[in-house]
Specification:
Layout lengths: L5 H14 L3 H75 L1
């Protein structure tokens, strides 16, 4: 074994690996796959966030619509009861005259 410094041996090993005909395409493919994986992960998180936001908005909208319908039905019931009470009083008043 020669007395070459460790850094020189590492550089020689690296330069031998880089000169290999498959090294550059494989490295480029690995880089592309890792970049695509990162982009896919970000896109999946964004899509999930968008879907959850839309679902929450839809639930809020449905809740508000249900609340408005309940208020409308309650108001209608109150009007009907007031009319029934007024009709009963009128009928009771008429029965006194006979």
């Amino acid at each position: 074994m020669t007395a070459q410094p460790r850094s020189l041996r590492a550089r020689l090993a690296l330069s031998t690996w880089v000169r290999h005909p498959v090294a550059v395409p494989v490295s480029a493919a690995l880089l592309a796959v890792s970049l695509l994986s990162g982009v896919t992960g970000v896109a999946a998180r964004e899509a999930s966030s968008t879907v959850q936001g839309n679902a929450q908005e839809s639930l809020r909208s449905n809740r508000d619509a249900a609340e408005r319908e309940l208020v409308r039905q309650t108001t209608g019931f109150k009007i009907m009861m007031a009319a029934w009470v007024a009709t009963r009083e009128v009928l009771a008043g008429l029965s006194r005259f006979h």
